[in-house]
Structures are given as C-alpha cells and as structure tokens.
Queue: 2 jobs
Job 1
Amino acid sequence: MSTTIFETLESDVRSYCRHWPAVFESARGCRQYAEDGQVYLDFFSGAGALNYGHNDPDLKRELIAHLSADGIVHSLDTYTSAKRRFLETFERLVLRPRGLDYKVQFPGPTGTNSVEAALKVARLATGRREIVHFTDAFHGMTLGALAATGNATKRAGAGVPLPFTITAPYDGYLDDPDAALTWLGRAWEDSSSGLDVPAAVIVETVQGEGGLRAARAAWLQGLERLCRQHGVLLIVDDVQAGCGRTGTFFSFEEAGIRPDVVCLSKSISGYGLPMALTLFRPELDVWEPGQHNGTFRGHNPAFVTATAALEKYWSDGTFAEEVRQRGRELEEELGRIAALVEGAVRRGRGLLTGVWFPDPGLAGRIAGAAFERHLLVETSGPKDEVLKVMPPLNISRADLLEGTQVLLDAVRAVLG
Ligand code: PMP
C-alpha cells in the first residue's frame, strides 16, 4: 500500500529532489511518523524552518485559539491585532534588548522574498547597480536571489547568465584569509579595476546550503569596515542561520557587527508557517507605499505563532544558553565521526553544523544509511560533500545523543 502511494508521488511530483522512501503523516517535537507506523528522528528541521520542532504544544494552542475565535487569517496590508502584537513583541524581545533599530518590512511569504526585497531596497537607496555575493552562497530561487547564489546547478535552472552580481571568495575559500577583503577594497578604490562600487554585499555568517562554512568574527568585522568605508550596504542573510540556530537570535551577534539590512524567514513563524521579514535601518525606508507589496505578506496565523515562539523561547537568555550547550555537545559527537574518516573536518556554528568528507559521495551514502536507521539527515555543499546536522533547537540531550549514535552507526556501516 505505502509503496504504491510512494510510487504515485514519485511519478506525479515534478523536480522532486529528496528521495526519502517514506510517506510522513504526523510529527511532534523532533520525531516524524510515517504512514506505515515507522518513527523517524528529524535532524533536518525543514532546513531551519522548524527550530522549535514539529507542532510545539504551546504554539499550537495559540494557533487553535486564534482560529477558533475566527481571528483574521488573511489581511494583505491592513492593520490587524495579530500583526500589531507580533511587531510589539519583536521590538520588545528581539530588537530593543540588542540595541538594534530596524524598520520591519513584510516582503512576502518566503526567504527568497526577503532577499529580493533587500536587493531592491539597496539598489534604490544607493542608486548603484551591482551586488557582491560570495562563493557557495545560497540566497533563494527567484531571479535576484538566484543571481546572488554561488551554485552552478541552481543558476543553470534559470537558463541564461544572470546579471548584476559579482562573486567574491568567502572566508576560508582562499589560503590567504585576508585576500578576499583586500582585493575588494583595492578594486573599489581603483576606477579602472572593472569592479564598480556595488550597492550592497550580501553574506551568510554560516553557509547553510553551501557546505557549513562559518565566517570568522574578524572576517565579518573586516567586511563591515570595508562596506562602511565605501558606503556599501551590508546585508546579512539570516534566513537559515537566524532565529537562534547559531546560539544567538541573530547569527551576526557574536561578531558584534550591525548589518544595514537583515533577511529572516524559515523559523520566524515558529511553526513552519510561511513568513518572512526584511529589517532595514530607518534611513533605508525609501519605498513609496505600493512599491513592494504582495498578496501573502500578511499571514496572521503565522504572526500568532511567531509571537508565541518569541514569548516562549526568547523572553530571557535561558533558551539561547541551552542551544549553545547542545551545540557544544553536538560538536563533540561530530568530532568522533570526523575521527573515523581521514581528512574529515567539522564546520559550522551552534546547531548549524556538520561534517565535511574528502570523498564527495560519502556524505550522501551516510545520509542514506542513516535513513535506513530512521534518522532524517541531509547533505549540503557544492558537491553534496557535507553531512548537515540540524536538529530542532529545543531537542533534549538524550534525543541528540540518540541521533548522533545512529549517525555513528551509519558511518561505520558505510565505511564497512
Ligand atoms: N537564504 C538562505 C540563507 C537560505 O538558506 C534559503 C533557503 N534554504 C533562502 C535564502 C531561501 O529561502 P526560501 O526557500 O524560503 O525561499
């Protein structure tokens, strides 16, 4: 029965890339339940969209209460109580305690909408054309975000070369750690270099899809300095690394930088509902009303769960400290895996981390062996050479260790 359903899905869904032979029906916390009764531990978390796990009971209660009271679901750009509560809570629990002053734009339902809004506003505010992005970056699938994505396969999906972006080496891409920033600075100063001063630089502090490379704090600070010197806007894409993934609410907090624009999505709704924010410095509020709108940028059930998630997890520093502790435990466990394979190293930060393997096929085979042992884990990187380990942030130590033990068994099985 389930094989038939799986075969039907396989033949009817176009461009499907995730081959987990199971049909999932329900989920709670860090576990997913398939139609055939099998239980899977989720170390994938919707690629960062489920930082608080599946169906968090407190968030679910708020959502059900909102729907039961005939609360507004769709509101487009009108004012609603749920939207006001979210904005007040975001200001009180996220922006103010960090001394951040940003205007909040609802750019559309997903991460790529947030990036698109960031690129547009940067070009309008500066009157400049180019956007600098980094090797192996991932910023989304719409044309602007894709043009800033350093992945040949994804870019090829657009058919013809994408305009107006320049690729620079990410931290760690070159042997000389300072070479990339030196090159950018010199080229921007030299009007004959062929590199115009761009509108913005867009960066991920940890490259989620690009292979779990984490930029050093000093490199991010250098990048910020360089941008300030040349009047270039700094956009941090925190779609995947944000909302606590790296152990602080924003992934750039540890480096102490202050981006001009920040992109958030994935876990901001707290419940896996579509929601995105673009945060920008008040001076960058340059759009006339209607210059950036969209039908689904006022999704009130998402505002309700987003507010509940902030209240539950971010009203003090306890949760962030727990995430950092789980991150340290995970790093230790991944170290044991890396030690089994010569050349394997760990990358990433907090609970956005993984293991890089010198043999590009290995990570995929290990993910397959992990699935057979009922653990959902993904690969990332330009050649899918990195095993990407992303459990929900509120996972217990016992569940974390259960999952890493499965991973260790999967690695041993693949190595033979
Ligand atoms: N930016 C980053 C850093 C991402 O990881 C992603 C999604 N993986 C996106 C943007 C695009 O988000 P979405 O898939 O929601 O459009």
Job 2
Amino acid sequence: LSATKKHDVVVIGGGPGGYVAAIKAAQLGYNTACIEKRGSLGGTCLNVGCIPSKALLNNSHLYHEIKTESSKRGIDIEGEVKPNLGNLMKAKDTAVKQLTGGIEMLFKKNGVTYYKGNGSFVDEHNIKVEPIEKGVEESILEASNIIIATGSEPTPFPGIEVDQERIVDSTGALALKEIPKKLAIIGGGIIGLEMGSVWARLGSEVTIIEYQTAIGGAGMDAEVAKATQKFLKKQGLNFQLGAKVKSATRVGDEVDIEYEDAKTGEVKSIKSDVLLVAVGRRPYSAGLNAESIGIEFDQKKRIVIDSEYKTKLPHIQCIGDVTFGAMLAHKAEEEGIAAVEFIKNGHGHVNYGNIPAVMYSHPEVAWTGKNEEELKAAGIKYKTGKFPFVANSRAKTNMDTEGFVKFIADAETQRVLGVHIIGPNAGEMIAEAGLAIEYGASCEDIYRTCHAHPTLSEAFKEAAMTVFDKPINY
Ligand code: FAD
C-alpha cells in the first residue's frame, strides 16, 4: 500500500530546470517536493553534460598549453609532458560529485523534500514515486501544482547502435577509458565540437562529419561559424561538411563509417577507433504517463505549453528541455523561476530574445541576441562593428589573441541587437552583452562606460565604438 503525502508544489525531474524551480517554490513558502530518478540531482547538465564537459575542456586545454606553449611563455619543462587520463577523469568526477551533492544540501537548507525515484501520473493531482533505493516504500504525492522538468536525451541515429564503448553518445564520450587514435564525430554542433576539442588536444585524430555546410548549429552567426571552423582546423580537427552518413558499423575494435557527399553523391568511407554520435537531443518523458491525463505533445514529442508554462491542465506546468526552445541549462533555470512566479503572483519573465549561447572551445565562442541572417530575414536595417583581440593589450600579454568581438546594432538608433564573440573568455564577456540588450543600451552607452585596463572587455567596448565611430586602438 502506498502512503499519500501532500505537497503544494511537486517538481518532476531534478535537473537545472527542476531543482531551481523546487528551491524557488520553497523559498516562496510552498511545501515543495522534487522527484529525481537518476540517483543524484543536477540532471543532464551536472551529471553528464555542462559540468563534466567543462572539466575535461579546461584541463585538456591546460595540458595542451603546457605541452605546446610553455617554452615560449618562459617555462621550461624537463621530461615528457603526458596526459594522465585517470586523473583527468577523477578531477571531472570530483567536480560533478561536489556540485550534485551541493544541490542536495541546498534542498535541505530550503526545506525541499527530495524523493529518489521515478515519478509518474496516477491522475491529474496524484503522482506515484517508485523508489530507486531498496527498502523504501512507494509513495503517492498529492499536489496542488505540478512542474514537469524531465529534460532530454541524446537523439539516436537511425541504424547506428550506441554501445558506449566504440560507438558512443555524449555520455560515453565523457568517460572514454583510453585516448582513441582516431575519433569520428557525427554532428558539428556545439556538443560534437566541444568533445572533438577535448580529444584532439589529448592526441586523437578527430574528424567531424556534418550534414550541413556550416558548423555550430542554429543560432551561430555565419561569419562566426566560418571563423570558428578555421581555428578548429588549425587545432587539427578535420571537417567533412555536406556529408550524409549512410551507416556506421562496429567491426572488432574499429568502426566503419560510410557517408555520401551531399553535392556529388560520391560515397566515401572512413575507419575510426571510436565514433561519437552527436546529432542533437530530444525531449524525454518516458515513464511519466503524461499522456494518460491528457497532456499534449507536439510532433517532436515536446510537451505543449502556453506563455505561462501551463500545459492543457493549468495546474501542471512544464519547463526546460522537454518543452519548446533552446536546450540550455540557463534557459531551463530561468523558466523554473518564472513558472513558480506564475504560481505565486500570476506573472513571470524570460526574454527568449536574449538567451546567451556559449561554445567552450579555445578560444570560446559566445553570442546573444540576433545574428545577421535573422535580421536580414526580418528586414531590419542594422550596422555591424568588429574589434579583433590581436589589438587588445590583455590578449597580447596573455598570448591569446585569436578572435574578435562583433556588434550588430540598429542602423538608426545604434541599439544593440546582437553580440557575437570569438575569443578568450567570450563566455564570461557575453554577460555584458546580455545586460546591454536587456536594458536597451546603445553602442554609445557601452562605449561611454569606463572599462578597466588592461582587460579583454576593452575589446568589447571598442567593438561597440566601431559601430558609430573609429576605434582608438585599431
Ligand atoms: P535535465 O537536465 O535533462 O534533467 C531532467 C532530469 O529529470 C534528469 O535528471 C532525469 O533523470 C529526471 N527525470 C526524467 N524523468 C523523470 C521521472 N519520470 N521521474 C523522476 N525523474 C525524472 N547547456 C548549457 O547551458 N551549457 C553547457 O555548457 C552545456 N553543455 C552540455 C554538454 C553536454 C555533453 C550535454 C549532453 C548537454 C549540455 N548542455 C549544456 C545542455 C543542458 O545539459 C540541458 O539543457 C539541461 O540539463 C536541461 O535541463 P532540464 O532541467 O530541462 O533537464
């Protein structure tokens, strides 16, 4: 028999969307529970996404810098500089463990009840929790408000079977047992390019096979995508663009991949030690039993919501990767807060025109707001301004001068419409662009804001200036 427990708000899924919503709801005074079946909080992002990938990116970059650049930076190293994959993975696991454990502590601090198990709808107000731990009894949670935040999973490639050994998805690519001599990656989006960067730095020969003729996926400005491909090529990544994968088969300890040149129809094949399938992510709602209570899904299996995150049943909301919009952790978090605010006082706010995107390669690539292609399509007249890091003093002292800051502004008012950065710390710098867009700043507003010297952010200021005037340092 199941014991029934009552809560004001029950959140299903403990990823960045769900755990943030749960904490916010508890802070606003609701008796809140969060159900998570993974066994640890933080969802895809903390367990097998943002966090482990950034740990590997940061340390593989350090290794690569030390190996290739230490001498010219004035550091002589005796003996061979070698990667230690075991310790690299250990450092990644430590970061993940500390952060996921941290959320559990935050739940305790804020009084969120944490149920470790699978949540599924019994009816419109009751959710069954099937515990993952032995000896824990099943419970039924009765909730006035429910927030679905069940996230996403890697999209499979038809006909290619992931074994997480030779043919892996992003989860497998974060935990390879040895450095592959040859790594092929299907998909030139951000996840594919980040993982390609990691393993190329550690010594793998990496080939990206992408169906589109440009890398970076949707949203990346075409000029930026081209420049990004150039610097990744320089770092040793190979690109097969406009290439349609036909098949990939494991043969012993190798993978045979066959693809077709989309233009000429010529069929080519390559062999790799490991193949990463990184063709995107799809909404995840298996085991939720949401269909049974009339929750609506669209053709892409996303849960359909209105502008207040409400499903067809108004007391059930949905946020994050399992519904519409960019599949990004910070977007899910914003929605978590907004959804709870809608419950509390009937209004909440997410500006979907100003969600930053970052690729944590080196240099980093970051953008927010509109790109040129979008503005052209909308018939909006704009001006651009660009400033290269090679003319920035801090980038020079850091010996890290690749890339540029590009502003796109309204042709008449100079109001900032989009900012696109390739460069060291672009992911941090893009926050200033977000603030500018949020508050309707013009390029002159940014130029007239004093920026510290010598910092990379001076390149940001000077790029804004080039929209309406000449830069000083270039
Ligand atoms: P998720 O994080 O997927 O969490 C959903 C949780 O719900 C899961 O833990 C799941 O176990 C649980 N769940 C599902 N169904 C049930 C159920 N019925 N009962 C109980 N629990 C359930 N985004 C960024 O912004 N920046 C990055 O740098 C970045 N890097 C990434 C790198 C990789 C390799 C990957 C794969 C993703 C990356 N992302 C990044 C994307 C990011 O991880 C997701 O956008 C984000 O995790 C979505 O949050 P969410 O809360 O919607 O869902």
